[in-house]
Structure to design on (143 residues):
């Protein structure tokens, strides 16, 4: 429970909002009738993952892995809500996980796995690129 309390809710929400760039771009391009193929969503996912990893890895989050798993879950919740709000406006009917509740679990699981991957990268960033004044774990205890 102490680990969970050490996670910044504000950071989790901000990271989740950064993640919403991906569905927002997809929605805008769909409304404009632009077909992008798989390269754009994959590219956006990679960029967002790197942003998450660098922000948390270089930042002061005491629990990088937990922070990013929670950010991934929060992203999933926000993406579900975004879909629920915008699908009736864009398509004229409710679509997405709220229209098909069995899809809620996989959306949340995908977000958690995304956060887990980003968290692993954040730990790597922290190890390879420590914040100013910090010592690398391998250097700790050396004279």
């Amino acid at each position: 429970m102490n680990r969970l309390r050490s996670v910044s809710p504000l950071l989790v929400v901000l990271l989740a909002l950064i993640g919403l760039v991906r569905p927002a771009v997809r929605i805008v391009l769909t409304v404009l009738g632009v077909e992008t193929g798989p390269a754009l969503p994959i590219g956006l996912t990679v960029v967002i993952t790197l942003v998450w990893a660098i922000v948390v890895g270089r930042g002061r989050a005491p629990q990088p892995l937990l922070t990013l798993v929670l950010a991934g879950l929060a992203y999933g919740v926000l993406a579900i809500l975004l879909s629920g709000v915008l699908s009736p406006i864009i398509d004229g009917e409710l679509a997405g996980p709220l229209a098909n509740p069995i899809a809620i679990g996989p959306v949340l699981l995908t977000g958690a796995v995304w956060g887990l991957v980003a968290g692993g990268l954040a730990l790597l960033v922290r190890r390879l690129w420590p914040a100013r004044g910090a010592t690398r774990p391998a250097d700790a205890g050396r004279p």
Q: What stands out?
A: The chain is about 70% helix and 0% strand. The first helix runs from residue 2 to 5. The CA atoms of residues 40 and 141 lie 45 Å apart.
